Amino acid sequence: MSRTRDLLTVAWTGLTSRKVRTLLIMLGPIVGVAAMVGAVGLTESAKGDLKQKLSELGTNLVIANAGGTFGSQDPTFPEDAVQRAQALSSVTDASATTNLSEVIAVPTQGGDDYYQSFPVPVRASDVRLPQVLEVPMLDGRWLSSSDTKLQIQSAVLGAGIAKQYGFLPGENRTVRLNNINFGVVGVLGPVALDPDLDNAVFITQWAAKHYFSTDGKPNQLYVRSQPSKTQATADAIPTAINLGGPDEVSTKVPSDVLQAASQADKTLQQTALFAGLLALAVGGLGIANVMSISVIQRSSEIGIRRAVGHSRSKIGLQFLLESLFVGILGGILGAALGIGIVYLVSSFADWVVVIAYQKIPIWMALALGVSVVAGLYPSVKAARLEPLETLRLG
Amino acid sequence: MNVPDGRPALLELDNVSRVYGEEIEVYALRDVSLQIYAGDFMSIVGPSGSGKSTMLGLLGVLDLPTRGEIRIAGQNVGALDDASRSRLRGNSIGFVFQQFHLIPHLTALGNVETALLYRDLRPRERKERAFAALEQLGLGPRADHRPVQMSGGEQQRVALARAIVTDPLMILADEPTGALDSANAAHVLEIFKGLESPERAVVMVTHDLTVANTARRKVSMRDGQIVSDERVASVPS
Questions:
Q1: Model's pTM, two decimal places?
Q2: Hey, are the CB atoms on B62 and A391 less than 8 Å from each other?
Q3: CA distances from A160 to A120, A156, B198 (A)
Q4: A17 to chain B: which residues are within 8 Å by CB?
Q5: Is residue B147 less than 8 Å (CB to CB) from chain A?
Q6: Do A310 and B117 touch (CB under 8 A)?
Q7: Do B53 and A393 touch (CB under 8 A)?
Q8: What is the CA radius of gyration of chain A?
Q9: Most exposed residue of A86, A110, A306, A364, measured as fewest CB within 10 angstroms of its CB?
Q10: Predicted-complex ipTM score
Q11: Which of B103, B122, B175 sits opposite A304 (nearest CB)?
Q12: Do A314 and B118 touch (CB under 8 A)?
């Protein structure tokens, strides 16, 4: 144990007593690791806002749409589709909406012609939709069971349509749905995972049945699954709802699109990573070169150490440990430099900083490996040096 | 092998030859036999090319003979691997070189400590022993100085401290006063005389007759062979 400590001390002293040379040797691993940390960090940070959005929205939402067969115009799910979906063990929450394509929404006086030409989608919804979508209300409240119980003609606007209508927070406003007035009770926040909902007007299923004679059967299902089972849930939903064939249900995981968009430019990242590897390899050659010269410069020291009883293996290990320290220190400094660069550039470019911390130990280990391999030849050379040749006796 | 007064041989060269070159053989040493005993204070003298340096390398176990056998305390060094031979060298021999050969980036204390590495000593104990050796040679106050901050005489005393710190069987000096002015040379020579002990041998390889004449035993070499091995009853003070 104390011999190992002696060896570490000798190697460390050998490095620290020649600081400039040591710093020059360390430039290889520093630049290599910094380039790799920086390359991945910068390309990931450039997409960091999308990644952040994804982590906020979650990637476990499944949207199911009823598909039509034989040209039916308004395909629907069974009325108990939500319960059927919730029967799946991987489903944590579910909500449904019904498109009311026959209903014309007119938000302002005298706009009938315009809104007949450009209809605003109206949807009947249950009370759980905002919770399932994990979207807060921008204003007011969502539809409630009291609306059904008390038979209130309440409506909620999507964020986009509220903006289009010029709806002011807290304003008393009515929208006419097929000439029936509904009071606006709230505005739903933007739904990034299904932007169609931003331009819709929502009413209760009761109101849809009562005023527009719908059958209460939904045609969109919003399902939250356990995070690790999103795709499996999406695959299972058609069978669970069982419309007589899975073909009549189409499912999608909307976060997949965002996820794809949030992926960093792989080609650019790989090019930069390759540059980092190249820097590391060149750095390795630099280490081998400088260490080899160092062995010649320090031949007298090697001769002295041999004369006082240090064996060839101790001399070799001493130089190898110096390379090891160069790799460790270079890796640490390189990682710190790379992280610093990512923070600096991100602060100027207003990016969300993303650092691949889990990959840093791999790159540091790579730098260490390159340093040790580069140090092998000089170490063997040092160990083989004949003390008689270096001490110039007589 | 014993000398008449019964002292044991510390180091023996038994018909040792050292040959360089393969196609054309050049004998640096030819069939040399020599015994060095505990208590010997000896010099090896000879002109350039007489084989002194080769002899020094072999006595210091820095080199191996082409033929013949070298034994330290009865152990054949040729039969040992590098690690055992290095350990034997570290434990048995203390070197002093003409050019001092101190490690420039280490302090005087660090240089002396070098000889105590890899001996399972705690750093504190190692420092204490190294400092004691420096103090013995009057260099305690210079322990934290680097070689470049010291005079030639002081550097040679640091080298001496490094040689004696392991309490070796033999101190092997190569022209120990060769790079010193006369005052420092005389001082260093006095120190060498003080190192004389019944338990160890002091061997000085030199071409300087002043140095050679301080020894009680004088081995002369010529053309790779020992031409005389004289013991003197008294040496000039």
A1: 0.68
A2: yes
A3: 11, 12, 105
A4: 105-106
A5: no
A6: yes
A7: yes
A8: 34
A9: A110
A10: 0.91
A11: B103
A12: yes
Say which of A3, A312, A393 has its CB closest to residue B57: A393
3-state secondary structure of B221: strand
Are B86 and A306 within 8 A, CB to CB?
yes
Contacts of A13 in chain B (CB under 8 A): 105-106, 110
Average pLDDT over residues A145-155: 91
pLDDT of residue A66: 85
Cβ distance B117 to A10 less than 8 Å, yes or no, reads yes
Find the range with the poorest average confidence among A151-155, A243-247, B119-123: A243-247
Report the residue from A306, A310, A386 with minimal CB separation from B118: A310
Of B63, B99, B102, the CB nearest to A388: B63
**Using one digit for the tens of pLDDT, what is the confidence trace for A275-309?**
888 888 888 888 888 888 888 888 989 999 999 99
Structure confidence at residue A392 as a pLDDT band (50, 70, 90): low
pLDDT band of residue A61 (cuts 50, 70, 90) is confident
Per-residue b/e over A320-356, b at no fewer than 16 CB within 10 Å? bbbbbbbbbbbbbbbbebbbebbeebbeeeebeebbb
Count of pairs with CB atoms under 8 A, one residue in A, one in B: 86
Q: Which of B52, B85, B117 to probe the A interface (max A CBs under 10 A)?
A: B117
In sequence order, the β-bridge partners of residue B34 are: B13
- Across the interface, whether the CB atoms of B175 and A304 are under 8 A apart is answered no
DSSP state at residue B4: T
Least confident of A28-37, A69-78, A297-306, A368-377: A69-78
> Chain B partners of A393 at a C-beta cutoff of 8 Å?
53, 56-57, 97-98, 174, 205
- pLDDT, tens digit, 9 for 90 and up, residues A254-283: 777 666 666 666 777 788 788 888 888 888
Mutate which: B82, B86, B92, B112, vs A, most A CBs within 10 A:
B86
Domain boundaries, chain B: 9-231
pLDDT at A71: 55
pLDDT score recorded for residue B2:
46
Return residues 168-197 of B near A (CB < 8 Å).
Answer: 174-175
**B1 pLDDT tier (thresholds 50, 70, 90):** very low
- Interface probe with B: pick from A297, A301, A302, A304, most Cβ of B within 10 Å: A304
Q: What is the pLDDT of residues A103-134, one digit of tens each?
A: 888 876 667 777 777 888 999 999 999 999 88
**At B35, is the secondary structure helix, strand, or coil?**
strand
- Which fold is adopted by the domain B9-231? Rossmann fold (3.40.50)
Kindly report, residue by residue over A66-88, the tens digit of the pLDDT.
876 555 567 888 888 888 888 88
